[in-house]
Amino acid sequence: MKKLVALLIAAVMTVSFAGFAMAGEGGDVIHMQLAIATANMAQFDILPDVMKEATNGQIEVELVDMTSLGTSEDALRMVQNGAVAMYMNSPAQTPAFFPVLDLLQIPFYTGNIDNVIACMEALDEAGLLEETHDGFEPLCYMATDPQMLSFASKKVESLADFNGMNIRAVSGISVQMLQEFGANVVTMGFAEVVPALEKGTIDGVMTSPIMMYPNHMEECLKYTLDLSVFNGPALWVMNKNVYDSLSPELQEAVKEVGKTMQQHFLEIQEEQLLEYWDAMEAAGLERYTPSDEFVADLQAATDTLVEAEKASLDQQGYDAEAIFAITDEVIGR
User: Fold this and answer.
1) Whole-structure pTM value
2) 233 DSSP β-pair partners
3) How many C-beta atoms lie closer than 10 Å to residue 27's C-beta?
4) What are the DSSP E strand ranges found in 92-229?
5) Residue 44 — very low, low, confident or very high, per pLDDT cuts 50/70/90?
6) Alpha-carbon gap, residue 47 to 26, rounded angstroms
7) Which residues contact 112 (CB under 8 A, 6 or more apart)?
């Protein structure tokens, strides 16, 4: 049913797209929809006001919950064909659209949020992110909150400590990583995680601190390895034809809004992480730093995943050597 609704909306919006574009040429107010994961995302709550101010009221933005448009893929296609003006999400939700950006989710590869953003910007500057220009104009690149490993009963301080542990993970590459470490991977819905930890069905979980605290996971977890497994990429794009229809002045203003929102996104994320860590550590969760040797072992154990990603990009016709040369340089590997 959602797909049908999405297609109907697309049809209506596509018919009206020409009028939408011409409004910008005439200097009238341009109304744009931005499809985001939830319409009340704290990271984007200031966007309508920021855009209105930056464009002197010429562009008004409406935040739209993308679930009302169907799946994430439905929403992205609607932006690609001009039915909706803008889209903000993690490329992990639509991997078929963004195979190059998928490499930034290789465990223990990028290291931190700043590296993820720097890699995306460097790849784009080098012309190696054609996927973010396939009917789109990127307005800013961002990164999701860190995915980390937390444990219920013991500190994991070496690869050998993973042997026999039951750890919950979701994505394919995370499952592969834990299998490389010798853990037993358990897949389950997020609502099942806390009961499973309380019963001892699982010994640990890979998730974000921003998901841990609201779900009271600090009450059943004792230790968190203070090392990001990965920070996923995120991006905000505009339909390319919509962007091209704007005056040069409005294009510049929109790009400046992108920079503002990137900084705001990072600030909100940092504030949340600090608040949640303080609360969870006060409740007894211990965040511990791995030894340099352990970090090196974790990276070495995931080298096969790096090579698999290179092979996958080559098979899809991308210049994996050039892509990884840039990301390795940015990261300092």
Assistant:
1) 0.86
2) 143
3) 10
4) 136-151, 166-168, 184-186, 204-207, 223-225
5) confident
6) 24
7) 146, 228, 231
